[in-house]
Amino acid sequence: MRYKIAAGNWKMNTNHEQGLDLARAIVQGTEPQEGIKVILGTPFIHLKDVVEICKGNTQVGVAAQNCHQEEKGAFTGEISVGMLKSIGVDYVIVGHSERRQYFRESNELLAQKTKAVLAGGLKPIFCCGESLEIRNEGWHVRYVKNQLKRGLFDLSEEDFKKIIIAYEPIWAIGTGVTASPEQAQEIHKEIRTSIAEVYGTDVAQNTTILYGGSVKPANANELFSQPDVDGGLVGGASLKAETFLPIIEALSPKA
Ligand code: PEP
């Protein structure tokens, strides 16, 4: 089902106390509203406690920022989907550009991780997005479509319906440079069209597609009012309740 979502990606920030304080402030500041969801993508060490903090608030869900593709075994330092499920995590961010770039996660590996998340009963937030070089060369639409094709498009329709997509142009992540609302809308529409080509118009219309890349209170309204932008995956501005709560508010259509 298509939701309006503000998802925070805390990355490798906040110690345990800071993380729990932040989660509490966001949960306390979030008014329940039909069709709107908030997701907290915290470091692994906070997850169990943040799940507890969110209990009873159906609006707020919890995401891990990564997982391993295998169920269990000799993979020192890794975390499986089953482990995340056992503590009540709802979502896993798959294929963030930092994982693709610094940890060399390929489309093929991300397809495996996505399937592992679904098999484990959690929901993937699947990231895609092009570099500045690709955008300047003008083939960003083709590049992103290829990421979707190789990462997602051999899923069954039933599984695909559980996917949240986050389009995050790499040149806008953590740089302070935001895609213009028109740039975001252009590619979100293209993403929806390619979903329709594979799974049909109904599935495409019901897929949640988030924009990520320097979303902040000052630009969230305009970005989220684009017809194919269903909210944001937010890094820097999700680290403070003062900046994340106004972004959550920007999801509600203004009267
Ligand atoms: C992100 O980490 O996914 C992100 C979009 O970061 P920022 O909002 O800081 O650009």
Description:
This protein is α/β, with parallel strands linked by helices and 255 residues long. It has a single domain (4-249), classed as Alpha-Beta Barrel (TIM Barrel). Helices cover 43% and strands 16% of the residues. It is built from twelve helices and eight strands. It has helices spanning 16-29, 47-54, 81-86, 97-102, 107-119, 132-137, 140-151, 157-160, 181-199, 201-205, 217-224, 241-249, and strands spanning 4-9, 36-41, 60-64, 91-94, 123-128, 164-167, 208-212, 231-234. It has an eight-stranded parallel β-barrel with strand order 1-2-3-4-5-6-7-8, surrounded by six helices. The longest helix is centred in the last third of the chain and has 19 residues, at 181-199. The radius of gyration is 17 Å and the shape is globular. Phosphoenolpyruvate binds next to strand 8.
Question: Any chance you could write out the topology, listing elements then pairs?
Answer:
Elements: E1 4-9, H1 16-29, E2 36-41, H2 47-54, E3 60-64, H3 81-86, E4 91-94, H4 97-102, H5 107-119, E5 123-128, H6 132-137, H7 140-151, H8 157-160, E6 164-167, H9 181-199, H10 201-205, E7 208-212, H11 217-224, E8 231-234, H12 241-249
The structure holds phosphoenolpyruvate (PEP).
